[in-house]
Amino acid sequence: MNLLTYVMHLAGSGAIAYYSAAQIRDPKTRPNVLAGFQLAESGSVPFLQTLSDRAAAEGDTWLAEKLAKHAEDEKRHGQIFAHALKQLDKKVIDFKSSKETTKETTKESKSQEGRSPFFAAYFKGYSPEQLKPAVTAWDVFMPSTYILELDASKDFARMANVLPESDPTARNLKLGMLNIAKDETGHAAYLYEAMMRRMSATQVQKLVDEWRTRKVDALMAFASNMLQSKNNNASLVQDAAPSESDSELMAA
Ligand SMILES: [Fe+2]
Ligand SMILES: [Fe+2]
Q1: Cβ atoms of 71 and 52 closer than 8 Å
Q2: How does the average pLDDT of the chain come out, rounded?
Q3: C-alpha of residue 50 to centroid of ligand 1, in Å
């Protein structure tokens, strides 16, 4: 990594950390932040499970087990955020069951996914097809995820530490997020080890540098999009209706 990339990395993560800390500290914006995390954490589960199956099919039992544990951890992280939302009497908008808006939101979320400036910049040069878990190259998945997990562990710890101690709900969330941060550190560690098992130290360093540079570019893309965006606060949450979720539980 060259010095400029490093400095930009520090500046970029500092700015995003400041922004997300402010968002999670403010009770008005907190539900939306939690919903975003719930969707991201739970959303990664099928991806990781497929990768685990693939590693097993390729005969790499060590990696298959690590990935299966990783998938379980991310599922639990999603549940921690869902629980925190429930304590605020909120839940993630159920896009599937809201009939009038289904068409709109599907269209919207698809185009959002395609346009996510962060991921577009991070995975520049790779088509969505190439990033599917059934085919994605291990030397793309491993370093790209390593960098994201490493940074997520620091970001979650920083955000946890700005939550107020006085409010029991926020204190609960703080403890949950500190645990999540610890898991993310573990994910980064096994991904690094996985690279070291397959490649030389020089190759690993090269990949880590490449994806660190990509992350810096992606943060810049994200930040400039945020400054220009008219619609960056689209709501992801709705009020939880206890009777409705109870009947869902009974039906399940
Ligand atoms: Fe996670
Ligand atoms: Fe993780």
Answers
A1: yes
A2: 85
A3: 17
Q: How far apart are CA 84 and CA 248, in angstroms?
A: 19
CA–CA distance, 22 with 18 (Å, rounded to integer): 6
Alpha carbon of 133 to ligand 1 centroid (Å): 18
Q: Which ligand sits nearest to residue 151's alpha carbon?
A: 2
The pLDDT tens digits of the residues spanning 124-164 come to 999 999 999 999 999 999 999 999 999 999 999 999 999 99
Task: Starting from the CA of residue 40, give the closest ligand.
Answer: 1
* Contact criterion met (CB below 8 Å) for 84 and 173: yes
Ligand nearest to the CA of residue 74, numbered in listed order: 1
Average pLDDT over residues 18-35: 90
In angstroms, what is the span from residue 51 Cα to ligand 1's centroid?
16
Mean pLDDT along residues 62-68:
98
Query: Quick one: tokens of 89?
Result: 């009497």
Cβ contact 55:63 at 8 Å: yes
